[in-house]
Specification:
Strand order of the largest sheet: 4-3-17
Helix content: 10-25%
Largest sheet: 3 strands, mixed
Structural class: alpha/beta
Strand content: 15-25%
Distance between the termini: 34 Å
Number of strands: 17
Low-confidence stretches: 5-57
Oligomer: single chain
Number of helices: 10
Length: 353
């Protein structure tokens, strides 16, 4: 048993195994048994409900989400053939389940109405980067069809129960700066920005400058620049804690891992998974960008996650690994949104003031 899991009680560790379903179908329709090392116990563990993150975390978490637009099938995708089997009703149902999975871990969920003129508008993560209780950046999304999404996000951020005191509008800083929030990864002391088809050098500079004002170092990953088969940095890597990431076990995943470690000057523990789709997990509460010191504050604010959302079709080995870090691992089926390059992190904007 790892040191991470010892942060929680033995009963809580057992609870995850007891609640896990015995089998799942993976994305290829293959039946996979989910056998946790403790599943052979003859007696079920006691029923201990997990308190929501908003209760156990020193900072409450708020979330913005947006309803699925009726025009979803007209969005910008890497593989247009996936749209042939897209079901709007299934996407809506999966999105509702996603919202329900978030809600127990939030102080408040603020759902926004659908923006039918903007087919990708349910992927709200791309429209803003929330850096500190004081600073947020309203991005200028990299694709022209998405730039009409940001005015309503600006209004929504101002209506949060504890809104950021300053919202930097990227287009007002530099008209040629473009960035999607899916290219931004928080690792506590560092804000990692990946260059991509949607995020350019000037957009990365605006984000890193804002991070510096929040007391956090911004670094830029360049190994994805020019690649057209990976939409965003967080299609390849997501954070479990300040030192642990879930990362695709591919050549590009290994290149990203190596470059991030070089930029931040410390090793990261990788939890590998074969699929890009499964490398995107959602930590609740999210990591908060914090200055490098004092370390005691980082440990208090960015402790172990209360919950990690993972795709239902993810390998059992990944789910077991994540259970070593979190009080609870929730399986969510977002396969329909995956057909339009959606994933877990991109469907919400999380804010911890």
């Amino acid at each position: 048993m790892s040191g991470k899991l010892r942060r929680h009680s033995q009963a809580q560790a057992s609870l995850f195994a007891y609640q896990s379903p015995p089998h799942i179908l993976n994305q290829h329709g293959i039946d996979i048994p989910l056998r946790h090392p403790r599943s052979a116990d003859t007696h079920p563990p006691p029923s201990l409900p997990s308190p929501p993150a908003a209760m156990s975390s020193p900072r409450p978490t708020y979330a913005l989400t947006r309803a699925i637009p009726r025009t979803l099938s007209s969005g910008q995708v890497l593989s247009p053939t996936t749209l042939l089997s897209l079901s709007l009703s299934t996407a809506e149902s999966q999105h509702a389940t996603y919202n329900a999975a978030l809600t127990p871990h939030l102080a408040s969920l603020l759902p926004l109405p659908a923006l039918d003129p903007h087919p990708d508008s349910c992927f709200v993560e791309d429209t803003a980067v929330l850096l500190s209780p004081h600073i947020a950046v309203l991005t200028q999304p990299g694709h022209t069809t998405r730039r009409g999404e940001t005015p309503s996000i600006f209004d929504a951020l101002r209506k949060l129960p504890a809104p950021p005191s300053e919202i930097v509008r990227m287009e007002e800083v530099d008209l040629e700066a473009f960035a999607d929030g899916g290219d931004v990864l928080c690792l506590g002391t560092h804000l990692v920005v990946g260059l991509s088809e949607r995020t350019n050098e000037r957009g990365a500079k605006v984000l890193c400058d804002a991070a510096r004002r929040a007391g956090v170092e911004g670094v830029v990953v360049r190994c994805l620049a020019g690649r057209t088969n990976n939409l965003h940095l967080k299609c390849i890597v997501t954070a479990v804690d300040e030192d642990t990431v879930v990362i695709a076990d591919t050549d590009v995943g290994r290149a990203v891992h190596k470059e991030i470690e070089s930029l931040i000057g410390r090793p990261l523990h990788p939890l590998h998974t074969p699929s890009f789709f499964h490398a995107n997990v959602l930590r609740l509460p999210p990591l908060v960008p914090l200055p490098p010191s004092p370390s005691s504050e980082r440990r208090t604010v960015n402790g172990p996650p209360d919950c990690i959302l993972v795709q239902m079709s993810a390998p059992a080995a990944l789910k077991r690994a994540l259970a070593e870090y979190a009080r609870e691992v929730k399986e969510v089926d977002m396969s329909e949104l995956g057909k339009v390059d959606g994933a877990l992190t991109c469907c919400s904007l999380l804010w911890r003031p």
